[in-house]
Design brief:
Glutathione S-transferase Yfyf (Class Pi), Chain A, domain 2; single chain; Glutaredoxin; alpha+beta
């Protein structure tokens, strides 16, 4: 039996840096965590739907209909496709059960909810306007500007200008102290489930990796919200899963 996994990821204008998107990092980190062999194919934003459609991957009902990450898995001449980081995580857990991502653990689900809704739901207006200049090749940057302007009803520059960044960071710091740090303290660390990493750690780590490539000062500010250093310890502990970024 022979198999090959291909991860479809977004390009970075700095090829040596490689992966930048928190969404594609979730899939990449899960592959790294599982120790699965894979190759990377970079797909620019405007090419995502044409490319995945050509593979026969059905789109979601809402815009954007096709997104990255996506993976293909070839086994004995049959190729399967999965799109969306959550679906990919479930697929990889089935493909290789150990080490387990612990997807059904209540704490793992809780961490995802906190990070996605209570943190990213707040600081998205701070982060998104910084993405094109920091990370994207020209064609991707143009697409990002055009589609986000349509989504927000204003340009990214206008979005950032009218955003009270300090107020949003203050809210985020409280969330970190009240919701994330207690979970790490309860487990004893360095991970959310104690001594073994899970999808919760990869999920948060994917956003920390994004902060780092957008602006290292943003990562440092976020980590500093935990004065006891639990988040910093977790970030250091997940580094092996975030080393492979560009191939």
């Amino acid at each position: 039996m022979s198999n090959q996994i291909t991860l479809y990821d977004l390009p970075n204008k700095n090829p040596d840096v490689g992966c930048w998107s928190p969404n594609t990092w979730k899939a990449r980190a899960a592959l790294n965590f599982k120790g699965l062999d894979y190759k990377t194919e970079w797909i620019s934003y405007p090419d995502i739907t044409p490319k995945l459609t050509s593979f026969g991957v059905p789109g979601d009902d809402n815009w954007p209909h096709h997104t990255l990450p996506a993976i293909s898995y070839s086994d004995d001449g049959k190729t399967s496709f999965k799109m969306d980081s959550a679906r990919i995580a479930a697929y990889l857990e089935e493909l290789k059960p150990q080490p387990s991502l612990q997807l059904s653990d209540p704490t793992v689900e809780q961490v995802q909810h906190i990070v996605q809704r209570d943190i990213m739901g707040i600081i998205r207006p701070i982060m998104l306007p910084r993405v094109p200049n920091a990370l994207l090749p020209p064609r991707d940057a143009q697409y990002f500007h055009e589609t986000r302007t349509k989504a927000f009803g204003c340009t990214l520059e206008e979005l950032l200008a009218k955003t009270d960044e300090e107020a949003l960071w203050k809210t985020t710091s409280q969330t970190v102290r009240d919701k994330l740090v207690p979970l790490l303290k309860k487990s004893g660390g360095p991970f959310f489930l104690g001594e073994k990493a899970s999808y919760a750690d990869l999920f948060l780590g994917s956003f920390l990796a994004w902060f780092r490539v957008v602006d290292p000062a943003i990562l440092e500010r976020f980590l500093s919200f935990d004065s006891e250093g639990h988040l910093r310890t977790l970030w250091q502990a997940v580094q092996p899963f975030f080393e492979r970024a560009s191939f």
